[in-house]
Structure formats: structure tokens, C-alpha cells
Amino acid sequence: METNQPAAFFIGEIPVFGDLILAPMDGISDLPFRSLVRRLGSAMSYTEFINARDVLEEHPHLSRRLAFLEFERPIVFQVFDDDPARLLSAAQQLLEYRPDIIDVNLGCSAKTVTSRGAGAALLREPEKIARIISSLSASLPVPVSAKIRLGWDEGSQNYLQVARIIEENGGQLIAVHGRTKQQAYGGEANWDAIAKIKQAVGIPVIANGDVRSIQDVERIFARTGCDAAMIGRAAIGNPWIFSRRELKDIPIVQLTAELAGLLESMSTYYGEERGVLLFRKHLKRILTGLDVPGDAIKGLITLPSAAQVQARMMSLFADIPV
Fold first, then answer.
1. For the whole prediction, is pTM greater than 0.70?
2. DSSP letter at 231?
3. pLDDT per residue over 52-65, tens digit each?
4. Which residues are catalytic?
């Protein structure tokens, strides 16, 4: 989404107009939510991560997971696997869907991913990372990037080695979650480690981890010197963070309109039953952030139809002071 402002940074030759980005999150960064946060200021779009096997085996839901709107560009397809050849074959097939960037997931800590040697498990095999990034960079007509963690555990934090390998083998961007695989989402993100990566490489670096507020946004930029910040879980409860606004500062009229639009787009994208079900997790986080009583939240998020949710939501928000 170009603006009249200069690009914040470039991924290869692709300009990025902004410095806050929605993190790829399985079950969250789907088209309806991504398109909402893009309108609110997220500078580019990462898809939910894609299993290379699903691409090669033509999984029936693949096309829907890869669908995007043109205004979301630059669009990044994030793929995971443990096999360099399979990753390359999958990435080449993904080109049919016209991504701007192919990203390799080297950071997922879920056991279902790491148990097969993919995601953060690859951090224990730097030589394989080199083969993956080199192969993709040499074979694809679009930039290649990677999302990493600091290492497998506290005793094996090889993030500087991995970051240099990514750059030396043609990677054009690194996003860094400042935790190890062992930490998962516990403890504190190590922003100083992210700063060391930024100082060690010449390609853009995106900082990720513990960005929960506008104050955190400014702090992570000051601490790391990174080109952009990536926001994950906090965005579920406050998608307006990409506009650098806290939830409490959003006018109720705007909040109601944006949520009604998200409910409609999710119902269209998934079908009403599933769309309403998935919308509830966004609504619950936002209502909790607004200090809506638990009984009122429970009564709202158990309603089965989009029309019922919409009506109750409008009624509930009408009672919240403007």
C-alpha cells in the first residue's frame, strides 16, 4: 500500500511504507484480520504459515489460506519444512499465487512442527539453513526472507551465526522473535540480542516479541535500532496498535464499525457458522481490554449467528461511554 511518504526500508527492490507489521500467526493472520490491520497501518502482510507438504500435495484449503487482496502488498508467503528440496519445490509452486516474498519459518516452537525437524528445530542445523536459503535465493525471482528465534535453548543461542548465514546466502530480510524455542512465549523477549543481529547484518531486521503497547513500540525501536517491529498477540486485542493508538483511545463508533466489518468479512470468508466462531476470539480479547464484565462477554460470545452477535454487540457498545 504505497503512500506519499518515503519507504521505511526495502526488501530487495520492494519498498515497505511503514514500520509496524502484523506477525504471522496460525489461525489468526487470515485474510479478514490481515486486511483489517493493513487498513489500520500494518505495513505488509504475512500469511499464516504454510506446510510445504500441503503445497506439493495440493491440500484442498491451500487456495483459501493463500488468498489475499491486492492492497495488502507486499504479501509474504511463509512456508515451513525440514527438507531443502521440498521447500524449493513448494516455493516454486507458490509462485503461481503471485507472492512478493517467500519467507522461511525458522522460529515456530510448536511440537508438531519441531518434532519433524522444521521451524525452530532448524536452528540446530545451521548448515541446512544455509542450503535452504541459498537454494531458494538462487532459484526464485522474488526475495527470500526468514523468521528466526535466538536459538533452541539458553545454552545454544546461535542467532548471530544464523543471521549471518541468512544474509550470506542471499536472504533479504530477517524477522527475529527475541526468545528461544525452549522459552516458547514465556519469560521476557531479549531485545538486546535483536539489537546485536541488527548491528551484525546489512539487510533489514524486524524486531518481534513483547510489543504490547505504543510505549513498547517506541522502546523496541530505541533499544534495537531495527527497521520495523512485528506485533503478534497484542494485535488480537488491539488491531489499532498499527495506527499507534491504544484500545482505550478508539472512539466507540469507529470500534463498532471496524468490528462489524470484521464479523462480516469472516462470515463471508469461512461461512457464517465458522466465521462467527472464529470472530469470537477477537471480540473476547477486545471486550476484555475494555473492561466489559465477564458475564456480558460470555453472553455475547456464545451467540450462534452473525446477526445476533451484531445486534448484541451494538447494544453492548451503546452502553460504553464515548
1. yes
2. E
3. 999 999 898 899 99
4. 108
